[in-house]
Amino acid sequence: MRHRVVLRPKVRGQKIRQQAAIAALLMLGVGAAATLRHFDWGALSSRRPKIDVAPPFWSFEVQGVPKELRDIVLAFLNDRPRLSPAQTVQELGRRFPCLETINFNRPWFKETLRFDLSMRRALGQVQINRKPAGFLSDNGVIFSSPAGFYTGVLPVLETGQADSAELKALAGFLSAAARPGALLSPLESMRFISSEDGWEAALADGTRAQWGQLAWTREKLERLREVLIKARSEFDGGVTADLRYFEDGRILLRPLAPPRPAGRR
User: Fold this and answer.
1) pTM of the predicted model, to two decimals?
2) Element spanning 104, H or E
3) Rounded distance between C-alpha atoms, residue 50 and residue 147, angstroms
4) Higher pLDDT among residues 220 and 7, named by residue
């Protein structure tokens, strides 16, 4: 014998409402799928706002260099179209070869690009055909600079046909020769002769040194100091010292002035 289950009116109403809600959700899903299938995604992409990696409202801050150079760098930055930070660093490096390092950051919540710069160290003033051609850095690179930023007394470097390896060796020599007591008189100039004969040095007291290759620098400086101290008791004025045969154990001296007469004090 079969029994029929009769739902109470309240329960039957809840069932009807649930079925209606499910049917409505199914209809919305079908409609959404049809809409997405025919939607013009290309039009949406064309309306998407583009983000400028270097917004035109950026301002600049520069630190780490003298105020005069800071003003020149800021004027250069503000006078050019806005670029990405990496491109701006490249532009600064090309425009200001005197800069050793160029770092940047953008502080949070600020519309400012901040540059932290440092300048190259100049070991000498380069001349080519007796005309100024920049400065030599401590890593052997010849660079230019706006006027007025390397005003100290620097040796004149006539680099001639010296290649990059010679220039790097020259930078090492200049650093060693600039140490206190390395020379009896300040270095006035260095002139490249040839790859075979090397370099010729001139000191402020008139001494000339045919230095030869830029090797054994520390040993040459020590030995040259010894022989020049001794030569001062024998010669008036400066001397020419030939160090091209240093590896054979010889330094040849020749006075620039006639020898001092015997018995003269």
Assistant:
1) 0.71
2) strand 99-105
3) 42
4) 220
Pair (77, 201) in one structural domain: no
Nearest alpha carbon to residue 126 among 91, 150, 166, 155 = 155
pLDDT, tens only, 42-58:
444 444 444 444 454 47
Angle, CA of 60, 65 and 68, to the nearest 5° = 85
Both 149 and 235 in one domain: the answer is: yes
Nearest to residue 121, comparing CAs of 96, 88, 143?
143
Domain extent, residue 227, equals 122-255
The predicted-structure confidence for 1-56, as pLDDT tens digits, reads as follows 444 544 455 545 566 566 655 655 566 555 555 444 544 444 444 444 444 444 54
Please check whether residue 227 is in contact with residue 239, taking contact to mean a CB–CB distance below 8 angstroms.
no
Asked if the structure places residue 18 within a domain, the reply is: yes
**How distant is the alpha carbon of residue 162 from its chain centre?**
22
* φ/ψ of residue 143, rounded to 5: -140, 160
